[in-house]
Backbone:
């Protein structure tokens, strides 16, 4: 029987699993794997500039393509640099398989150079993690890793590869089937529970669909749109669920929660049936739990058993894949009489429309409105902060426009690497990242990756010279004590804010872009927004940075007061 090394078997496994792209950074414990990757031509190897960004790139590649994202990093700091990205993927249910190098087995536990217990470190933020202790188990473990990542509630899996195990000769066969005792994820909806839920839906006077990221993950947008068409039930979303129903759909109301629309928050507070699909009911959408949907019976469909009744007690639990559940519902649902209820919701929208005050100077909404108008198709990736909330409020997300962001963990620095991963996975689709000036600097080194991979992404920077979301809280709730949020602050002005001239902003994003080989445009006026986008859209190989100078006093409204309920909304100041 022919025998091959573990390194060769790994590369063979990648091909068998259809992995066309791997995001990797080399090191001593993975150099032999790198050598084997060099000898093949099926799996493209992307070399980012840092492992923290690398895993975000694999994450966005997975979110935007529906494939499993794959990472390869070395031991020690290479592995620990994955932690934030693994947590990001875990909270947002993104399928990743991450391979980490490890020192030889006889050195494990001896504080060897670049040795860490990465499986132990990441146990709570991965679906599964394992160190391969025996060469004969390698093929089975890799096969299981891909199966676990892409089934049930999707998520990241980590495989730790000791260098000596990977060098051993062993069986050349890669398994074709998986049989994991104790891991049998359920995706099929219980028909009896579905019929019970539909009966409640038909009886409701004020029904409401609440849709989370699970519908987008399950690729159930078409099925859900058909469900809404038949039932005439108004729909609200979490920010991760935005796009599950096109934002221009007549039955779509908007986002719920911390910065949700007034009409959405009021609808939840007044509905008599809340039909939730694919959301975890986290604190950002519920406010105080005791006052969440106080008049409603609650139905909850989710693929993760642990998510049901974890935060909000529900009346009808249904454990199922969102697409399967919705498809089955289409066989039984009937039109609901929601005209009176919808008119009430529309009255709330008219009473407090979701908008920003018109200003002579450029606002974030001006930028997003321009994007909505000139891009018919796009993948939009946000960083985390005020700009993220503005995008989730005002960006039109339709059948041809997709929105990606770090939702559950709220990871600054996701935007630029996310755009890179999405563009690699979708080379023919325009990709736009939107970051604040703070988040952009967290992984700005990835401009080198974008330039060398010839990716014509458009990276928008909303530059207000501050860490805007924290500053907003300081303005509203901390007596305008702006501690640690001004990004111009330094030795020249520390302790003398307002007494001395502000230092110039660092860095000059346009010069920095040019130093990397990218292009840069600075926009300061409304009339410059569209020409800047039009210029960037001409590029076929070169990334563009568009820096928008915006007012730090542009705040995100509405906003739930800290510790408040959905009704405790600050509308404006």
Residues:
């Amino acid at each position: 029987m022919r025998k091959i090394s573990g390194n060769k078997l790994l590369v063979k496994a990648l091909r068998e699993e259809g992995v066309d792209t791997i995001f990797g950074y080399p090191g001593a414990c993975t150099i032999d794997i790198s050598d084997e990757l060099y000898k093949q031509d099926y799996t493209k190897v992307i070399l980012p500039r840092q492992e923290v960004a690398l895993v975000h790139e694999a994450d966005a590649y997975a979110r935007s393509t529906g494939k499993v994202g794959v990472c390869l990093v070395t031991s020690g700091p290479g592995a620990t640099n994955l932690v934030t990205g693994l947590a990001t993927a875990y909270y947002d249910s993104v399928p990743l398989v991450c391979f980490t190098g490890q020192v030889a087995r006889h050195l494990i536990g001896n504080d060897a150079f670049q040795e860490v217990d990465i499986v132990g470190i990441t146990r709570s933020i991965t679906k599964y993690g394992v160190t391969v202790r025996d060469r004969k188990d390698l093929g089975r473990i890799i096969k299981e890793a891909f199966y676990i990542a892409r089934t049930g509630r999707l998520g990241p899996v980590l495989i730790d590869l000791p260098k000596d195990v990977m060098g051993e000769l062993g069986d050349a066969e890669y398994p074709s089937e998986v049989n994991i005792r104790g891991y049998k994820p359920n995706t099929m909806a219980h028909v009896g529970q579905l019929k019970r839920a539909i009966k409640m839906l038909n009886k409701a006077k004020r029904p409401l669909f609440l849709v989370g990221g699970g519908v987008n993950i399950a690729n159930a947008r078409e099925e859900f749109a058909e469900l809404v068409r038949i039932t005439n039930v108004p729909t609200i979303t979490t920010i991760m669920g935005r796009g599950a129903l096109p934002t221009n759909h007549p039955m779509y109301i908007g986002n719920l929660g911390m910065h949700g629309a007034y009409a959405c928050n009021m609808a939840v507070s007044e509905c008599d049936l809340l039909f939730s699909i694919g959301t975890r009911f986290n604190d950002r959408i519920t406010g105080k739990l005791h006052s969440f949907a106080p008049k409603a019976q609650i139905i909850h469909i989710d693929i993760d058993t642990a998510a049901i009744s974890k935060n909000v007690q529900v009346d009808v639990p249904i454990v199922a894949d969102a697409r399967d559940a919705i498809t089955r519902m289409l066989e039984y649902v009937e039109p609901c009489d929601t005209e009176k209820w919808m008119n009430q919701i529309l009255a709330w929208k008219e009473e407090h429309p979701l908008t920003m005050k018109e200003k002579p100077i450029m606002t974030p909404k001006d930028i997003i409105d321009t994007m909505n108008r000139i891009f018919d198709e796009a993948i939009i990736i946000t960083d985390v902060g005020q700009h993220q909330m503005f995008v989730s409020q005002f960006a039109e997300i339709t059948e041809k426009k997709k929105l990606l962001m770090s939702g559950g963990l709220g990871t600054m620095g996701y935007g630029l690497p996310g755009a890179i991963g999405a563009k690699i996975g979708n080379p023919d689709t325009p990709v736009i990242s939107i970051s604040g000036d703070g988040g952009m600097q967290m992984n700005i080194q990835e401009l080198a990756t974008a330039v060398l991979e010839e990716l014509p992404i458009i990276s928008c920077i909303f530059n207000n010279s501050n860490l805007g979301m924290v500053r907003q809280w300081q303005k509203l709730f901390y007596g305008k004590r702006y501690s640690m949020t001004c990004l111009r602050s330094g030795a020249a002005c520390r302790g003398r804010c307002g007494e001395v001239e502000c230092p110039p902003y660092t860095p000059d994003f346009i010069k920095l872009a040019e130093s990397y080989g990218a292009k840069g445009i600075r926009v300061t006026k409304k009339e410059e927004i569209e020409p800047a986008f039009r210029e960037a859209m001409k590029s076929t190989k070169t990334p563009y940075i568009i820096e928008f100078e915006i007012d730090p006093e542009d705040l995100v409204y509405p906003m739930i007061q800290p510790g408040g309920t959905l009704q405790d909304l600050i509308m404006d100041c």
